[in-house]
Amino acid sequence: MSEPVLxxxxxLFALVAKEDKVTQQEHDHxxxxxxxxLNQKAIAGHVQLFDDYSNSYSGNESATxxxxxxxxxxx
Length: 75
Hints:
Blueprint: H1 3-17, H2 24-37, H3 40-56, H4 63-74
């Protein structure tokens, strides 16, 4: 899987997970997803990327802001 696609997926996961507080279970699902696609060394960096993205979202984004974020991811 290409790096831009992985980054886009991490952003989408972060946006969805941030609807409320990111749970340990959600975090584990992210790690399991990455383990299916990456080697152990790359997983930590992408989990950190997910954490950075999820920390950048307040969880109170408007529908317009969410759509702008999705558009940014895919463009």
